[in-house]
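Technical note accompanying the year-one report. For the benefit of new consortium partners, we illustrate the data format agreed upon in the data management plan: each record pairs a sequence with a structure-token string. No post-processing was applied to the example shown here.
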Amino acid sequence: MTQLVLDNRYLSNWYIFGDSVCKGIVYNSVDNRYELSKQNFINILADKFKAKVKNFASFGATIKKGLTIFQRKKEEIVEPGIAFLGFGGNDCDYFWADVAQQPSFNHQPNVPLDSYFELYKELINNLQEKNIIPVIINLPPLDPDRYFNCFSKGLNKENLLTFLGGSTKRIYQWHESYNSVLTELAIETGALYIDVRQRFLEEINPERYMCEDGIHPNDEGHKLISEILYKKINEMLIDKL
């Protein structure tokens, strides 16, 4: 992978492409709804680096939707800068209502793994052509039991477990499979890569950084991600701030 080397010219302008994690969405278990957290990791970091941010991340976005958003917004990308990228959580997901009705059917994820890799590569190449440094942020780990409890509400849980092979651990496994190709993607494209997942996994209770839905980092999780990114970026600046 390419060593992360940045200068202040690129650090001043940020473009964000990703899903609800990059958007800063958290789950409010009291009001039972999703909402934008003002303390999301992008806001925390942008404030520290005094960066101008154009956040094109979108709730529910896959890499396929990310490419569509890029095509729609590319005329707004005019100044050299950094693009923080975060896709995968929705790509590896399934349409669970269909799965619950036909658990023996060969259901496919929203974006199959090979397509995920190729489309991600296309987005990175497009950004590089516009003199933007792509920075891949890998996937914070999900809590499979919490996530299962969230998406299975109102559905046939027995059928869902049949599809999953009898255990929610399968959810974690395919989420990890999408995460695992990101290092190869960085090597192949020359994109920069920052690992936030490992820091979560080093925690005795990583679930304390996750919302009740099991897949979105909570405010503490966003704070942890911001600390990881701040440290990594500062270590590799050409001209120290």
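Partners are asked to follow this layout when depositing records. The longest helix spans residues 169-189.
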